[in-house]
Design a protein that fits this description.
The complex is a heterodimer of chains A (287) and B (267). Chain A has helices spanning 43-50, 73-79, 87-90, 96-106, 111-124, 140-152, 170-185, 197-203, 227-232, 239-246, 259-274, 282-286, and strands at 2-12, 18-28, 32-36, 58-63, 66-67, 80-83, 158-162, 189-194, 206-211, 214-220. Chain A has 287 residues and is α/β, with parallel strands linked by helices. Chain A contains 12 helices and 10 strands. In chain A, the strands form 2 sheets. Chain A has a 6-stranded mixed β-sheet, with helices on both faces. Chain B is built from 9 helices and 2 strands. A two-stranded antiparallel ribbon of chain B has the order 1-2. In chain B, helix 2 packs parallel to helix 9, helix 3 (40-56) packs parallel to helix 5 (105-131) and helix 4 (61-85) runs antiparallel to helix 5. The longest helix of chain B is centred in the last third of the chain and has 31 residues, at 189-219. In chain B, 21% of the residues are buried. The chains are: A alpha/beta (287), B mainly alpha (267). Chain A binds chain B through residues 48, 51, 53, 74, 77-78, 81-82, 84, 86, 88-90, 92-95, 98, 102-103, 105-111, 114, 134-136, 150-151, 154, and chain B through 134-135, 138, 155-156, 158-160, 162-163, 209, 212-213, 215-230.
């Protein structure tokens, strides 16, 4: 059963901007979904619908079998945790501990449970030793991890992240990737809005491609190889696929999407041509 | 930037160790009572007392002076106008064309009283913020049942002043990178326009950020039904004693003034 069901929703901002114009998608429990689209496609607007902050003017959003509306808003927010793009928007308290405790406190949990959850969330985000520090004096990557911990402490069934990789340094990206993998292995449903096709190709189980407030396509990662679709969505092929696209000789049918897939293909070619010979011999001949 | 930081100057004095709630009550009580004084000698002694307390708790004189300068733009204007605005015996007068204004003795007296009150209040509040870590201070205010809205306004101001200053800094740098030269005065037309745009853009950005922050808070279940907060331990007797000494010193001054305490006092 789909845990998130978005059915033909429309949303117009007060200033008249039509952000969503008939967008649909569905997400299964435990899936890793990348929501791809160019800037201004309506990704962030859509995410705010998933936890009931925006209510669609037409169409409906169903989360775990319940329709999102003003009445279910509070319950939905305890089920769908949202990590905003800029951690400065989300992390506002004067210490890390207090900020992570903000959500659980709002849920009306007792002190013991709050402490347990905050400790667990800080541990998962790797921020335990910073719990008494002031977020305003932290690095961007650290603030991001505090923001994620603040959402984890609410133990939502679905976690939604808006451009989580933006502005992070390579180490920050790696540690965020680690956190995401850990969450996935615990069976958490994760939705990420991004325009980073390389990240989507490496990470996602399913991709949803949106443009101008509408769904262009949704399905497996193979959508990222569909050149017509990718161009229509103003995205690009993942770097790995691009390389193989320009070397048709290397290409044995389908384009690889991830580094691992590419390595597999190259290794097979090497085995076939040289019986395990050295790789330098392959490339000059092929190109 | 450093001036904006809620730093803890020094780290071990009786005041640093004092229970934050007791400290808040005694310091604000002191300010409230002293503000009701109107005799100059008593206000001077209150100012001397609070400054001595600040110096004893390890706040440097330079630190206090810098903090006082921050307040000057706000009170300075009033202090300048006040001598001319109160009627009484003229000390000197100024002639601007048809306008004739006179500074009066009574006016100077009022200005002196006001500045002494401001001095006492600023020093007192600085003692509080410099000897209490900011999170503890906020916790104390909540513990004293100050309405959540006020505490949050304080918390958000301190939290986002950094973000805002950063933003201004970045915009300044970006302007410089495009060869902008700041005008010599605020009356320089180009510089004035740029300054105006800066303020406008900052306002719009803060507005948008405020919106996003609110969304983020809603996402985490705000506003809460009933928030459970741990209440701090009962303050010790030592803290209560020290707190009441601070408060009582102000109350004594007030009693002197009202004449309830019969003592020879130079008026």
């Amino acid at each position: 059963m789909a845990i998130i069901e978005v059915d033909d929703i429309y949303y117009t901002y007060r200033d008249g901007t039509e952000a969503l114009r008939g967008l649909s998608l569905s997400v299964g429990e435990g899936e890793r979904v990348a929501l791809l689209g160019p800037n201004g496609a309506g990704k962030s607007t859509l995410l705010l619908h998933l936890n009931g902050i925006n209510i669609p003017s037409r169409g409906k959003v169903t989360i775990i079998g319940r329709e999102v509306n003003r009445k279910t808003g509070r319950w939905i927010r305890s089920q769908v945790g949202m990590v905003f793009q800029d951690p400065d928007d989300q992390v506002f308290s004067s210490t890390v501990w207090e900020d992570v405790a903000f959500g659980p406190q709002n849920m009306g949990l007792d002190v013991k449970e709050i402490e347990r959850r905050v400790a667990g969330a800080l541990e998962a985000a790797g921020m335990s030793e910073h719990r008494h520090k002031a977020p305003c004096l932290m690095s961007y990557g650290q603030k991001k991890r505090v923001a994620i911990a603040g959402v984890l402490a609410m133990k939502p069934r679905i976690i939604v992240l808006d451009e989580p990789m933006a502005f992070l340094d390579p180490k920050g990206r790696d540690s965020l990737m680690g956190i995401l993998n850990q969450l996935h292995s615990r069976g958490q449903t994760i939705v990420i809005a991004t325009h980073d096709v390389d990240f989507a190709a490496e990470w996602a189980d399913r991709v949803v491609i949106v443009k101008d407030g509408k769904t262009l396509a949704q399905g497996g990662r193979h959508l990222l190889q569909d050149i017509g679709l990718i161009e229509e969505a103003q995205l690009r092929l993942p770097v790995v696929s691009k390389i193989f696209q320009r070397l048709p000789g290397l290409n044995s049918g389908t384009l690889p999407l991830t580094v691992d897939e590419a390595v597999d293909i190259i290794r097979k070619l090497m085995d076939k041509d040289l019986g395990g010979g050295r790789s330098e011999a392959v490339l000059p001949r092929r190109s | 930037m450093k001036l904006l930081m809620p730093v803890c100057a020094g780290s071990d004095s009786a005041l640093h160790r004092m229970e934050p709630r007791v400290k808040v009550v005694s310091i604000f009580g002191f300010v409230a009572v002293v503000s009701s004084l109107s005799s100059k000698p008593l206000l001077v002694s209150a100012a001397v007392m609070i400054t001595a307390l600040a110096l004893i708790s390890g706040l440097g004189a330079g630190y206090l002076l810098r903090r006082l300068i921050l307040v000057l733009p706000f009170t300075g204007m009033v202090l300048l106008v006040l001598p001319f605005a109160v009627s009484g015996e003229a000390v000197f007068s100024l002639q601007f064309g048809y306008f004739h204004i006179a500074a009066t003795d009574q006016g100077f007296g009022r200005a002196a009283i006001l500045s002494l009150r401001v001095l006492t209040a600023v020093v007192a509040v600085n003692i509080l913020t410099a000897t209490t870590p900011f999170p503890d201070l906020m916790k104390a205010l909540r513990g004293l049942k100050i309405p959540e809205v006020f505490v949050q306004v304080l918390e958000f101001t301190v939290r986002y002043i950094f973000v805002l200053v950063d933003e201004v800094q970045r915009m300044k740098l970006a302007r410089k990178a495009r060869c902008f030269k700041a005008g010599r005065s605020i009356f320089d037309k180009g510089a004035f326009r740029t300054l105006g745009q800066l303020v406008g853009v900052l306002f719009v950005r803060s507005w948008e950020r405020g919106d996003r922050i609110y969304c983020a808070m809603l996402s985490r279940g705000y506003p809460a039904g009933a928030v459970v907060r741990e209440s701090g331990a009962r303050p010790g007797w030592g803290d209560l004693c020290r707190g009441s000494i601070i408060l009582m010193s102000a109350v004594c001054l007030r009693l002197f003034e009202s004449g309830a305490l019969q003592m020879a006092m130079p008026r």
